[in-house]
């Protein structure tokens, strides 16, 4: 793939809690230069001024997911009111580990209702789940009306995205739902592998390095 084709799949991300306004502005400037799909920032950075064509994504229940569903829904509603185009919510992992799939679907549905027509991505922390749990979490997200399933926050000690998880997630949700790979993708080879596995969105903080790697592969 050419770097420009990859750039439009990227949520250019800065979610460090200590990120400053100046650093977020640098993120926006770099995203515009690189041609990424969006920037992804913490809710406290909203509202965020961006150039035309650049989307704004944020997170919800981040990074643990251990929040009441009503709190997540309220956070998501506040974010879209402040201009977020997309919201990446972290699931309640307790529900997944205990097999409480109906409750998990209800949580996701509450957030989807809060964001309305805006895009909702559901972070399942795939590295912390078994294959069966990944499948069931993806099915719950699809049933709740989410737009994407997403591998990871990048903050969980179990790890980030894996090719196996992305393949399993894509197989589970089929061709019409989004799959976002995020967490630990720092070079072009890894990004390419995630895309080939079925990811149609990438969460990257090292976007410039990854895209430079694709430029190098083209030569």
From TrEMBL:
Known EC number: 4.1.2.4
A cellular component term from Gene Ontology for this protein is:
cytoplasm
Read off the SMART domains from this record.
DeoC
Reaction(s) catalysed by this chain's protein: 2-deoxy-D-ribose 5-phosphate = D-glyceraldehyde 3-phosphate + acetaldehyde
This protein's UniProt keywords: Cytoplasm, Lyase, Schiff base
**Gene3D superfamilies linked to this entry:** Aldolase class I
Q: Where in the cell is it found?
A: Cytoplasm
Which EC class is the enzyme in?
Answer: lyase
Q: Please describe what this protein does.
A: Catalyzes a reversible aldol reaction between acetaldehyde and D-glyceraldehyde 3-phosphate to generate 2-deoxy-D-ribose 5-phosphate.
Record family assignment: Belongs to the DeoC/FbaB aldolase family. DeoC type 1 subfamily.
What name has this protein been given in UniProt?
Deoxyribose-phosphate aldolase
Q: Which organism is it from?
A: Boudabousia liubingyangii
Instruction: Supply the source organism's classification.
Output: Bacteria, Bacillati, Actinomycetota, Actinomycetes, Actinomycetales
